[in-house]
DNA sequence: CGCCAGGTGGGAT
DNA sequence: ATCCCACATGGC
């Protein structure tokens, strides 16, 4: 199922291209928001790796639109490098990323991340950190660590996020109790371990989750065969609108 | 107004 | 090991 799903989604939504790099918006191969559909081999400079990691923290349980505002605030304040971030007071940093939500927590996590990316600088720039190393950082959990490994360092680890769980549960591949590592094993066992594939596949899952497989699903015209239809409640619960007098 | 968004850490069980 | 909850803003 996991192997069959990918071409289905690719045909339905087309190449996505991740991670968006706002700093590359408009450059050759990148669109106006920094996506680079169909290509995963662009050069990742140390600055780009760091930008990806910052975005991965800011998007924790947060829509990308809110993250873009925070990234724009950082950029227009001239705060880009780990040293720049560490030069801010926690309060100022929290203010800059306020739009991404949880800004106090995230400001602290960004400082921890900056220390990590700063030293030892030359090593950190090019060689992938160990997963456990990232997980030891306060504020970096499994999804954020794996996002950094995949999108910043090109490691073939599959991202397991809320969208992935929701989709797999609806099509009956998982029950819902499985750990992140168990779900990753499903992908790793079913697919060639190529970071380009893992990248695009996860991007497609996000596209599908946003377009159709939402919390309140839009099943009409869904590109995924009806195997999940009988698992969905006919009318997902919703409160009737209340008058606002 | 209520729901949702590319989670995480810490405390209780 | 697992469950539960606080953490926060913005879009629709």
Explain what this protein looks like in three dimensions.
With 245 residues, the protein is an all-alpha fold. It has helices at 2-13, 46-58, 64-76, 82-87, 90-96, 103-118, 121-126, 131-135, 142-152, 162-170, 180-190, 195-211. Helix 5 crosses helix 6 (103-118) and helix 10 crosses helix 12. The chain is globular, with a radius of gyration of 19 Å. The N and C termini lie far apart (50 Å). The mean pLDDT is 90.
* Global morphology: globular
- CA radius of gyration: 19 Å
User: Which percent range describes the beta-strand content?
Assistant: under 5%
Please outline the major beta sheet.
Answer: none
Q: Please report the total strand number as a whole number.
A: 0
Question: How far from one another are the termini?
Answer: 50 Å
Give the overall pLDDT as a whole number.
90
Structural category is mainly alpha
